[in-house]
Amino acid sequence: MFRKLVILSFLVVLVLAGCGQADKKAGIKVAMVTDVGGVNDQSFNQSAWEGLQRAEKELGIKANYVESRQDADYQPNMETLLDAGNNLIWGIGFKMADAITEAGKLNPEQKYAGIDCFFNEPTPNIVGILFKEQEPSFLVGYIAGKMTKTNKVGFVGGMDFFVIHKFHYGFMAGVKYANPDAQILVQYADSFTDAAKGKAIANQMYKNGADIVYHAAGGVGDGVIEAAKEQNKFAIGVDKDQNSLAPDNVITSAMKRVDNAIFNLTEALVKGEYPGGSNVIYGLKEGGVGIAPTSSKHVPAKILEEVEDIKNKIMAGEIVPPTNPEEFANFK
Known about the structure:
The protein is α/β, with parallel strands linked by helices. The protein folds into 2 domains: 27-131 and 258-282, Response regulator (Rossmann fold, 3-Layer(aba) Sandwich); 134-255 and 300-330, Response regulator (Rossmann fold). The chain has helices at 2-26, 44-59, 74-83, 97-106, 134-147, 162-178, 195-207, 220-231, 258-270, 301-315, 325-330, and strands at residues 29-33, 62-66, 88-92, 111-115, 126-131, 152-157, 183-188, 212-216, 234-239, 250-256, 278-282, 289-291. The chain has a 6-stranded parallel sheet with strand order 2-1-3-4-5-11, sandwiched between helices. A 6-stranded mixed sheet has the order 7-6-8-9-10-12, sandwiched between helices.
């Protein structure tokens, strides 16, 4: 009888401990501030929100977001989420770095994290998340260089900043690696939201002979893809697999797994392993970037085999895609 009581007591303790863990997870709140592209941008912010939704489903945390309509909204939105009692507050986009830094200093007990944010001396309550965007851009550039029929391709950038430069120069290096004679048209939209401008830029590139245009421009890229559909040309998506936006025209996408990064850090928070005071970098080796799984719909199998070989060489350090004009000039 005594033995049965001991076993029963042990089982009760286990059940109560399990309930305690569940309650602890359920009490964890994580929220994000989008950049001006909004949560349904079919790209960067949407991927981030999908990562938080996955964390809510699989980890039992409570997820939320607020959208920014303009840069001036970043700081007030962070304060709103602070007042709501969130355990971790995300800022989505490199333009959020200053707001995160300031909020982190003012609220040392509050945990923050920023996507595409590098912090020179992050305080213990801040984590920066970065990606090697040049790596998947090199791969889709190689595809463009191999598949162009006109020997002319295009790149449309959003804002002229260092993060977009990694997409830009990685892509150009990939094109040249595949096809040294290919010409690359480049234009920045000075926006991440102006789809009409993206469409106009892409239409001009197609008119000038480009048959494939790659964008790294958030909502501006919606216009690039729309132009590809109307002109019956090819486009290359970014951040998410964007083939669904134009199944006959988006031949591949340079994927940036913001969703994985959001989920991974949220999981670390739940486990009590939040890596405060650091910058975390995701590349091909870490599974943080890659090309879209739908690439096989349009890209010949032989080219995809070559892409896989190049991917392995990048992970081994045999190929180092450039991130800026100087590195591109020295790339061989």
